[in-house]
Design a protein that fits this description.
This protein is mainly α. The protein contains two helices and two strands, in the order αββα.
């Protein structure tokens, strides 16, 4: 619970490049949302994380096994 409270009060900062030539200096910016109507408070929410599906894992495992079988043949 303490971690959730700290994350709510102090949201994590994300790297965001402002231009293509600005490679060295990437300013850190919070992912703030706009305040609600009639509210002066803002809150943040984490970016949506896409998770792996079973099909992705099966395709990866298939490619990994295929590569493992071909590697000894090349010797």
């Amino acid at each position: 619970m303490a971690t959730e409270t700290v994350d709510y009060l102090f949201p994590p900062l994300m790297k965001s490049a402002t231009s293509g030539s600005d490679v060295r200096m990437e300013p850190l910016q919070p992912t703030w949302s706009n305040p609600l109507e009639y509210s002066s408070f803002t809150h943040w929410k984490a970016e949506k994380v896409e998770s792996l599906t079973e099909a992705d894992l099966e395709a990866y495992e298939k490619n990994r096994k295929k590569a493992a079988e071909e590697k000894p043949k090349k010797k």
